[in-house]
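haha ok so turns out i had the wrong file open the whole time. this is the CORRECT one, sorry everyone. sequence first:
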Amino acid sequence: MPTSHFSSFVDIPVPSLPFLFSQRATWLYTTAALVGALLVLEQSIYRYKKKHLPGAAWTIPIIGKFADSMKPTMENYMAQWNSGELSAVSVFNIFIVMASSNHYSRKILNTPTHAEPCLVNSAKHILMPDNWVFLTGKEHIEYRRILNTLFTKKALSIYIGVQDAITRKHFRQWLADAAKDPSPKPIMMTARNLNMDASVRVFCGNHIPESGVVEISEKYWDITQALQLVNFPFAFPGTNVYKAIQARKAAFKWLEMAAAKAKIAIASGAQPHCMLDEWVQVLQDPTYKGRKDFSDREMAMVVFSFLFASQDAMSSGLIYGFQHLSDHPEILAKIREEQYRVRGNDINKPITLEMLESMPYLKAFVKESLRVKPPVTMVPYRATKPFPLSDNYTAPAGSMVIPSFYNSLHDPEVFPDHDSLTPERWLDPNSPANANPKNYLVFGSGPHRCIGIEYATMNMALVLATASILMDWEHHQTAESDKVEIIATLFPKDGCQLKFTPRPRPQSA
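then structure:
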């Protein structure tokens, strides 16, 4: 019997080495053929979507222009915009149509039936998918109508007082720090901290303690870094998107608490001293006929969206405002003359809305500074259906369509000597700049145009006006002063290195 069993094992066929190698080779060939087919399909789809548009003839497999997008430069953006009024690019198989002309940019911005804002790929993860900024159509119009009540002249007159007090507090600290160390320092983070402090206090007042303001300010930088055009698409621990989500959770804790406290304060008869207070009071007004059931979380989401919309863009505008004034002393001198005249040489007098209306040169400078260096150069939209952008090109549904603002703001026919800083162009009612308002896309256009334009320009004007009478500053020029760093918005690559000293009071004060 044992012999019989042994014989049965001997009879089992054993694969030969050539057969094993043949199986492995077949698997490798099959895998290679499949991968090759997928790559060919990827290129074919890209070329089919691209059609005749300018852009790379072939896209880098899988990642496309991901490497360029991780380190964006104005030079690369300009090259893309200058390649055609419409051009194509692909990043991680996201097909993108870039619009560079005013006509096509405005068409995207003003066609909500075919495109909706998608900001950046990570935006819904960070801002929350049910945030009002992602609403479209009638629902968006109704929501925006409610929020418009937060930017009336009555509301702005409350905010400007808060901004003035916060600005002066920070300037005192800037001068104290400069007295200890008079060497030039980058103002990128100090200006950002001023702006965040002012924004949180305007929106939430004293309903958030100082520790909460500090935590929001410190962690918000993680949100800024995650809101660049392209980021690693998954929220794995350690990624920018993951850190931004944790920062949002920390901010929401304080913002929801502020909303709850505002409701209690107004119910007890307090007068509004911040945006949340104003909002609650509006809702309680018997003449108000709109929606009234806003939860603490929903109000926190709105305030968070305002921080997102204002923080980086306003910081960019402020920093370039300081740099522009330092590099153009003749403009700074005119602003100072206007300030002393309107304030009656009283540098301690808080600025008011009425005073701002009497400062046309300051307002012209702010408008021009934002034109020359717009904080935001583009805003991504997503085509919700096939979008006929031109007579011979339709952007596919699901593709990203991105209107750019920079070319419209530097159109030489509308802005002669377009790279020069010339506030006077806005003081002449018959100038090409004033005759072509459609080119001024700093705040976008269409149904999603920035809702806080007056607030943003008021803040920038107030800070620079107050700085002009309280301080002198020198710009330390470096090799990177005129180079641009893109971190969601535009910043001087060297952080704008300035040296501050106290400014003497006017003699007649």
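Residues 17-50 form the longest helix (34 residues).
again sry for the mixup
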